[in-house]
Design a protein that fits this description.
By secondary structure, the chain is an alpha+beta fold. The protein is built from 4 helices and 6 strands. It has a 6-stranded mixed sheet. The protein starts with 19 loop residues before the first helix and ends with a strand.
Length: about 190
């Protein structure tokens, strides 16, 4: 007697505004991979990491860790956009804060990777919505308006913030790192 095949996994919902955050994360990884392609004789890895993974270090390369999502002040009583449902509340605007960390056995390589990543963020200060791909359904678009874009800026961390962040993730110290802020992201 044959056993029936397992049921298919639940379908990922069609492109929604909640897919924007992971799509933006994947686009940032692609930008950073492009930055590290040349220069050191090999290509360091770029990966998305969870905060607990930083406590144990990482393979040589760059990790991008989502460390916070913050609301963007926006008027909640703003008039609706033309063509929008007047009864629907306005979109929630957020900014994603990523910790970009360079890992290597040599300090010079860490600094080179961080500098290459920062240069790429500077050159790609705006990500067009049309550059985002669906993070779960390959080949699907997110349906982002062609005029929508997301800005990338660096945020300075002082020594106290770095120490607090290292303590929060359980790491004795952080290697060269910088915070990248991406947004605003509208969640409908």
């Amino acid at each position: 007697m044959r056993t029936p095949p397992p049921p298919p996994p639940p379908a990922i919902p069609p492109a929604t505004s909640t897919a924007l955050l992971p799509a933006l994360s994947l686009r940032l990884i692609k930008l950073l991979e492009d930055a590290l392609v040349v220069g050191v004789g090999h290509t360091p890895t770029v990966r998305l990491a969870q905060p607990r993974e930083l406590a144990h270090g990482s393979a040589e390369g760059i990790t991008l860790t989502l460390i916070g999502v913050h609301s963007v002040a926006a008027p909640r009583n703003a008039p609706p956009q033309p063509g929008a449902d007047p009864a629907a509340p306005p979109a929630a605007l957020i900014e994603a804060h990523y910790l970009l960390t360079a890992w290597a056995s040599k300090a010079t390589l860490q600094q080179w990777m961080l500098a290459a990543a920062l240069r790429q963020i500077h050159l790609s200060a705006v990500i067009a919505g049309s550059d985002l791909t669906h993070p779960f359904n390959a080949g699907e678009t997110l349906g982002v308006d062609a005029g929508t874009s997301y800005r990338l800026v660096t945020k300075n961390l002082n020594l106290e913030e770095i120490a607090a962040l290292a303590a929060a993730i359980g790491a004795p110290a952080l290697p060269p790192s910088v915070v990248i802020v991406a947004g605003p992201i509208a969640l409908q």
